[in-house]
Design goal:
Strand order of the largest sheet: 1-4-5
Length: 193
Amino acid sequence: MIKRNDNYFRYPPNLNMLDLATLVSLYRSRGEPVKSAAGDYFGCAHSFKLVREAKTWFGLHYSQASWDAMLTKDAQGYPLTEAEMNVLGLASGLGGHPQTREFIEKNIGVIPQLGYMIVNDLKTFGFVEEQEGGTLSLSSTGEDALNGIAKRIYEKKFIPEMLQISRERYVKPTPTASKDVGDKLKGPQIDLF
């Protein structure tokens, strides 16, 4: 599936380098309003304008108007990312994947510690419900949120091919540039050592 819009929240790809306490602190402080020090400004990550007051997102700052523009319809003010879309999509059961909490936390495209916090928050907001035995199911508000983030990213209602786990299954490896260069350089080479 081709992403049609990049106007949505994203988690930094290198979260695995953080210790757990820092990760929890950054996750819990997302969306908190902050004011810049006297004489300083924040750069809005969405509008690229200088602002004195902003909301934080993993080290990035957003003006209130930009934050509101990044929020997804039917998400009740919860900042949804692809990871939340993966949780909601896997909990829907449409893709035929296991709906256990353990499976979902490990297959949403972020480190499992962050996956645990995301699932807990989605339960708190009422988007997913946990059944006995650790199985997650999607609520009606969760279905609305799932379709909202799918429409934001892909400009269409949710289908299982949008899931991270589905995309990984169908991706075919392409030869790397270094391998191509190495193939072209085969032949007599001088030993440098």
